[in-house]
Design goal:
- It is a single chain.
- Helix content is 28%, strand content 18%.
- The protein is α/β, with parallel strands linked by helices and 374 residues long.
- An 11-stranded mixed β-sheet has the order 3-4-5-6-7-8-9-10-11-12-13.
- α10 (220-231) links the parallel β7 (206-210) and β8.
- α6 (153-164) runs parallel beside α9 and α11 packs across α12 (286-297).
- Mean pLDDT is 90; it is low at 75-82, 116-120 and 369-374.
Length: 374
Amino acid sequence: MDQKYLNTISELDNLVGLNSMERDAMETVSAVFPFRSHEYYLALIDWKDRHDPLRRIVIPDPSELSGGECPDHSCGKEEPVKTGWQQKYNHSGVLHLTDTCGGLCRFCFRKGISRENEPESTKDVSADIDCIREHTEITDVLLTGGDPLILETCRLELILRRLREIDHVNTIRIGSKMLAYNPLRILSDPDLCQVLSRYSTPEKRIYLLAHFNHPRELTDVAIRAAHELEKAGVLVINQTPILRGVNNEPGIFSDLFSKLTFAGISPYYIFQCRPSKGNRIFQVPVEQSYEIIQKSWQTCSGIAKQARFVMSHATGKIEIVGKTARHVFMRYHQSVDPTTAGKFLVFRSNPLARWFDDYRHTVTDFEPKMTWML
């Protein structure tokens, strides 16, 4: 029997068997923050362990209803995207193709946005592609949603073909958690890799931004699917947030980074979990997150240490680059305002800070003392 996507708690109950208290609690949560997953991913969960990290990633938890509002509009109060194109930075932008995902991450910063659960909820982006054509400064386009790989291959090909007809678009990135949620999407559709191979050329590559959050998601099947993408000329890189109860231990992060690089998947970004509505249970304080990363890297190769630890703030991507007992050091890795690009920031340490807006005390007169040893 073919594996399928599940969109309701009743379907989940029929598949794995829930007790009445679990079922009622999940129904209450999913009425606010919808549930969706795939049978492949659900089979990876240890259902005897209520704290199983993969369960935490995709199964509704009553603690999600405990709040966690965000002062930064880029995470907590994001409105549904009515038009497909958003030019966040001068040279790059985001093209939203669909509202549907292969699974709904419980920590998603858009979890409060009403979504359709049908693949047909696809956006008409024709006018948006015309807009990209007019803006010759755009060299990089990120395809996102939802998950672009939820689309039928023929629909995805049409979009890729039209983008490749634009000379100044060099890099196409596809943000997708499908390698973790349903790698069978890649393995069972040979047309998909043929299409990607056609539009990922040596001069103009397609990147697949995978979302492996825990080393157990890197199954043999997922790694095989990633290899098929690589054979098609697609460069697979990975990004993940730090998530309490999922990967907020140095040993788990070290294992994740190592398994990724062993499989030829380069770590790209590590995100501070956005404090969106319902995400409080996943948040780890910024400075604690930084320490987890540093400790995990002690047992990793240099290749595994390529990822940048950032916050995707309304003002840009802010990289956390270091800390002492008294100070935290950051810089604008990307900035909406070009005049602040690369700006270096020094704040007084705040062990309770969970987001950029929690740092109120900027150290404007910070002058580190340097001792030269001859």
